Amino acid sequence: MGLENIRGFLLDLGSPHRCAPMVHVAGTNGKGSVCSIVDCILQEAGYTTGMTLSPHLQQVNERIRINGQPISDEALDALLTQIDGWSRAWGEQHMQLRQDEFPLTYFEAMIAAAFVHFQREEVAAGVIEVGLGGRLDATCVVQPAVSAVVSVGLDHLDRLGPDLASVAYEKAGVFRGGVPGVVGDVPQEALRVLRDAGASRGAPLFVFGEDFRVEGNSASFSWEMGSVRIDDLQLSLQGDFQRTNAAVALAIVELLERSGVFTIPVAARRRGLQRARHAGRLEWVEQDLLVDGAHNIDSARVLAAHLASLPRHGPRSLLLGVGSDKDIRMIGTLLAPQVDQIFTTRCAHPRAAAPDEVADALSGLDLPVRVAGPIEDALPRLRAEPGLVVVAGSLFLAGAVRDLLGKA
User: Fold this and answer.
1) What gap in Å lies between CA 36 and CA 54, rounded to an integer?
2) Cα 41 vs. chain centroid, distance in angstroms?
3) Are strands 316-320 and 388-392 parallel, antiparallel or unpaired?
4) What is the pLDDT of residue 325?
5) Which region holds residue 280: left if phi is over 0, alpha if psi is between -120 and 50, else beta?
6) Terminal Cα distance for the chain, rounded
């Protein structure tokens, strides 16, 4: 990981990553939801937006969006063909690579394509989700108008460090001197690191629970930041935890308003909250089928709390497919009390753990654990049985379920 190649390549292209004010969002969980909310609010205020999210659930097009709509196949094909040619020529000149060697990673190429597309579409604002970490993530080439760290948890420890402080240090890489930063509900250990990073870089930080807050429940809540208070807010995204994400998004929007570059009426903020969608996150894809991309300990804990809040009208089955690099045992342990049985599965992603490997990791849990095979076989079988089916453990698995059910 590093920024030298992507920064040099974009500089040669005329710096498309500086085509518009950018919102730069990092976090272990919740950053995609925050990006989606901010994007919707800016649209409701009348601005043309570009947004890049990762990973995609079903189609790579989802990573590059204008006003919420993924780039078309034809436009993406033409754009990536250009990126391929430009980057190979750049690599040959600046890295002494052969023409058959590609100088950018997959993620760098997609981020470069997104910035070029945003520039061509003359967006008024970009909403950029960090891929991994922050400090060395390819998205960190942007000079944001506002940056944010939504959450800090123990994930990707092989790359981000062994503990919360290390992970927080990497995510603090999105903070820039003189640029306001928003911090979500993070552990104190992580908050200390984020505060130190903000202070050392001259980035004023606005912290959840201190500088802004929410009150109420998922049906109606209030948000307050300084002298600004908005009551009777409704959010389309499911789960009480989304109110914290909404609070972060509203803080970002308020700071954009204070910058003097954007005018974002309260009515637009209300409509954006009500319109925001984020597929694969606590998504009821059918009446008795709940899909959630919970793929680490923190997101599994959130899913478990949401399931605990739902009335139990019948049997519950968990269809669990997890990446081989995740803490399978802990994810299963957190979710087990909220279901009656667990079936293990996998999608086609190369990092997905085999169903029998998942089952072995869950041995000894106080409920039945059965191997169900690939998701293409497991999902129809479970849906034929009565009760609620919860699919979780991987964003890629969530995408596979949406594909099987024909959800665009």
Assistant:
1) 12
2) 17
3) parallel
4) 86
5) left
6) 33
Taking 50 as the pLDDT cut, the residues of the chain under it are none
Q: C-alpha 76: how far from its chain's center?
A: 21
- Count CA within 13 A, CB hemisphere, residue 316: 20
C-alpha 56/C-alpha 62 separation (Å) is 6
Task: Yes or no: say if 196 and 174 are a contact pair by the CB < 8 Å rule.
Answer: no
- Quote the tokens at residue 263: 């005018």
CATH superfamily for domain 283-403: Mur ligase, C-terminal domain (3.90.190.20)
Which stretches within 129-218 are classed as H helix? Answer: 157-160, 164-171, 188-201
The confidence score (pLDDT) of residue 134 equals 82
Long-range CB contacts (within 8 A, 24+) of 281-286 = 281/32, 281/33, 281/237, 281/238, 281/239, 281/398, 282/237, 282/238, 282/239, 282/242, 282/306, 283/238, 283/398, 284/238, 285/401, 285/402, 285/405, 285/407, 286/383, 286/405
Encoded amino acid at 98, one letter: R
Where along the chain do its domains lie? Answer: 4-275, 283-403
Provide the Cα torsion 114, 271, 248, 71; round to 10°: -10
Furthest-apart CA atoms within the chain: distance in Å: 65
Tokens standing for residue 377: 């076989």
Helices (H), 185-236: 188-201
C-beta atoms surrounding 315 within 10 Å? 13
Return all residues near 402 (Cβ < 8 A) that are at least 6 apart: 57, 58, 279, 280, 285, 291
Residue 153: partners with Cβ closer than 8 Å, 6 or more residues away? 28, 29, 164, 167, 296, 297, 298
Question: In terms of DSSP bridges, do strands 22-26 and 125-129 run parallel, antiparallel, or are they unpaired?
Answer: parallel
pLDDT score, position 7: 96
Are 183 and 175 contacting, i.e. CB atoms less than 8 angstroms apart? no
Cβ neighbours of 404 (radius 10 Å): 15
**How far is the C-alpha of 189 from the C-alpha of 166, rounded, in Å?**
10
- DSSP code string of 35-73: HHHHHHHHHHTT--EEEE-SS-SS-GGGGSEETTEEPPH
Which CATH architecture does the domain made up of 4-275 adopt? 3-Layer(aba) Sandwich (3.40)
Helix (H, G, I), strand (E, B) or coil at 203: coil
Distance separating alpha carbons of residues 193 and 196, to the nearest angstrom: 5
